[in-house]
Design a protein that fits this description.
CATH topology of the largest domain: Alpha/beta knot
Number of domains: 2
Helix content: 40-55%
Strand order of the largest sheet: 3-2-1-6-4-7-5
Number of helices: 8
Largest sheet: 7 strands, parallel
Order of helices and strands: HEHEHEHEEEHEHHH
CATH class of the largest domain: Alpha Beta
Number of strands: 7
Length: 216
């Protein structure tokens, strides 16, 4: 660990947009999930809820584990469970779906609390899921294809979210409490030791200016 690395960890945590999330509804290809996770990390979306009714498909989360350390990924057995997490935070729930009544994704105000739902590669959304959304959004298409790859579509929407929030100065606002920031900084800087502390039910020790543990 170096001062530069510790500084980047703190800067990244301060920029996390705690009132945003992504819900992936049976996105089963690991490389698509991994790509969505990387984009969430890049724009400061801290949480993904991955809906996998079939337990065997949940291995996709482990296959995408490269960015899992920086983005909190939880698996949900149903879309209702995932949507409940968004509703509990009073989030506007948007689903990317190219139906006739869908709104151009650039016309949405992403500076409000928002959850973005992305459908699976094969079947998209079920009729039930569509009925649970506040709005459907679409990416304008001028070619023969009707849709983009799910990870590409997620990236376009999430970077529009980043653009709007950056213009509003939301990346400069502190979202975590000092206690939360201290806890997460330790977990990101010292992942192995944080797991040891959790197993032993020990409090986290202090870190020095380079992110190393101060031994008493």
């Amino acid at each position: 660990m170096t001062k530069q690395r510790l500084s980047k960890i703190k800067r990244t945590l301060r920029a996390r947009q705690l009132d945003t999330m992504v819900i992936v509804d049976e996105v089963h290809k690991p490389y698509n999930l991994a790509a969505i996770m990387r984009t969430c990390d890049a724009v400061g979306v801290p949480q993904i809820h991955a809906v996998y009714p079939k337990p065997t498909i949940r291995t996709s989360v482990n296959a995408a584990a490269g960015t899992k350390r920086w983005v909190n990924v939880t698996t949900e057995p149903s879309i209702d469970k995932a949507l409940a997490k968004a509703r509990a935070q009073s989030m506007l729930v948007l689903g990317a779906h190219p139906c006739p009544l869908a709104i151009d994704f650039r016309e949405i105000d992403y500076t409000q609390p928002v959850a973005i739902v992305m459908g699976g590669e094969l079947n998209g959304f079920s009729d039930y899921t569509l009925s649970q959304l506040d709005h459907t959004i679409k990416i304008p298409m001028h070619g023969m294809g009707e849709s983009l790859n799910v990870s590409v579509a997620a990236a376009l929407i999430l970077f529009e979210l980043e653009r709007q929030r950056n213009q509003r100065g939301l990346y400069d606002i502190k979202h975590y409490s000092p206690e939360q920031l201290q806890k997460l900084t330790f977990e990101w800087a010292q992942p192995k030791f944080s797991r040891f502390c959790a197993d032993q039910k020990m409090p986290y020790p202090a870190l020095d200016d380079e992110g190393d543990i101060i031994h008493s």
